[in-house]
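Technical note accompanying the year-one report. For the benefit of new consortium partners, we illustrate the data format agreed upon in the data management plan: each record pairs a sequence with a structure-token string. No post-processing was applied to the example shown here.
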Amino acid sequence: MDSILSLKHLRKHFESQKAVDDISLEIERGQIFGLLGPNGAGKTTLIRMITGIFYPDQGEVFFDGKKFDPLVDVAKIGYMPEERGLYKKMKVGEQALYLAQLKGLNKQEAKKKIENWFGRFGMESWWDKKVEDLSKGMGQKLQFVTTVLHDPSLIILDEPFSGLDPVNSNLIKDEIFRLAQGGTTIIFSTHRMEQVEEICNHIALVNKGQKILDSTVQEVKQQFKKHQYLITGVGLDKLIMEQAPFTPVSQKDNSMLIQIAAQHNSSAVLRFLLDQQVEITTFQEQLPSLNDIFIQSVGNTPTARTFEKN
């Protein structure tokens, strides 16, 4: 496993609250990693420790095989926070140049990279616009460009699609895939589970400072599956349900959602249907959505992680 980022037993406490309470993660190079959790889960605190904004009370961060050094490694990270950090009175071009130079680019190479990214995103005419005159979606595109233009090894995106229309969402989505294919690692934090399903190949779910899930999207779905299948075909409405190895959950026209009994399997269901002359068109397992898993997992965890009183 080629990990670019390793978090080892991180803890961060604020007054009486355990914001991050013993979290370990391994994030591989080129991975699109979903960092998920409800408000107050500890995601932002975790990200701030990864980026050197906060120091952990306990535990260690390793970046690219070595202990994280904020003075050296921050330049290799691009961070797009949910709370946007653009200077409203500056012009778009000078804002991008300023932020690129903060990341170590000289003015000439910064200008070249900005022009390339502005061209990719159709932003060529924005150079002399003031940031305060941009719409929320335009500001999102500018923030994304300033996050990635110094070619960081690790990019952290917190709600990157907020305020974007579908066309511009797809534009940024395509760039995320392109960057990952080129070896850049993406940490993607959002409340939109359908975006996670589409974009991420690995997820970690945190709640009240603790990690409660950490696996690939498909493995998580398999872990939470309910053995439900969708069947479509001719003859479902004429089934004799005596001794059926399943229970119908819902039925409409020529389709039926079923729950297979614990002592049976999909083969038993198929035999039962074929014995009753059902002409099967579709027989497909229905895996839970990440949204369902999110709600189920968060609902089953304690409501707080506070210090124990003596």
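Partners are asked to follow this layout when depositing records. The chain is about 30% helix and 30% strand.
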